What we know:
The protein is about 20% helix and about 0% strand. The chain is mainly α. It has a domain at about 40-70. It starts with about 55 loop residues before the first helix and ends with a helix. The relative contact order is 0.09.
Amino acid sequence: MAVLTKTLEIKDRILHLDMILPVNFKSKKVKIIITSDDDVELKNPIKNLKGKLHLSDKQYSDIQTFLNEDR
């Protein structure tokens, strides 16, 4: 499967999609998926829990060990 990406600017909630496909792109159908390029601005709510669980050093270490083993 060939994957092509292009970042576009949106103005007044209108998206103009123009893309010249490479010569070697032979597909007759494409699937267009639109995602936000602002992902870096999304905040992870899990980070808000830091320090709120009041874990002991051993509990924190055990959790980290468990997470590292599961990866």
